[in-house]
Design a protein that fits this description.
The chain is of the alpha/beta class. The protein contains ten helices and twelve strands. A hairpin with a 5-residue loop joins β1 (3-8) and β2 (14-27). α6 packs across α7 and α7 (195-211) packs across α10. The longest helix has 17 residues, at 195-211.
Amino acid sequence: MELWFSDYHTENVKVSVKAEKQLFGEQTEFQRIDVFESKEFGRFLSSDGSIVFSEADEFIYDEMIVHVPMAVHPRVKKVLVIGGGDGGVARELAHYEEIEEIDVVEPDRVFVDVCKEFFPDNACGLEDERVRVFYEDGLRYLRNKHDQYDLIINDAIDPLGHTAGLFTKEFYGNCYRALNEDGIMVYQHGSPFYDGDEESCRFMHRKASHSFPISRVYQAHIPTCSSGYWLFGFASRKYHPLADLDVDRWKQRGIQTWYYTTNLHKGAFMLPKYVEDMLEEEEGRKSGKK
């Protein structure tokens, strides 16, 4: 009997992956977690029926959400990762010797334990001596933080589920206050392709552009994400993701990547017209324009 995992992108579209076997399944306090083994993607993890990442393509997401801001900000010492319980973001951050502290805030302890067992190549990032893991709600954690971080990475996975509080106006405002005066926030921005997902993208850009003087969006191709097309948000109190990109400094680090390059960095901010139009409409709402 064949086992197929189906990820419903919309009510009318699903993407199915043939699974060799199921390795884990449990309903936690926060979400339904399943782990499968497949030929095309290796092991992959799903949350509430949607693929979060796979062994075959997680490097794309983790490299793009980490190396883009790190190639821009000249002196990151303290980093906050909200979500990130799999350890992939922390693993990429660990390449930077100048970082002194990496705080990972993940509410679901089971999620972390599952990733340690089934995805050790990701979870090894949590073993870095600079990493501290806090098992609590990200929005609550942020409320009493002021001028503390150089970089905040919002690695939360679902704007509608148990992490919905991490996609609100209050959250973006709290991030702004928690950053130092030249801090950067990056966040997963979702996919703009399907109508049902577009509204979430609009909402996130509207809130980020309200809260930060610099707010830009960039893209990546990630096969297991909705429609295979994913956006990231870059919000900053000072630095522009292109004007302040320091190519020479980043290349001198000698970091081995599979996806990110400084050339790709520049190109990732060149968006399709329908995405540009969507973002400009939300920026117009911000300024009161029609």
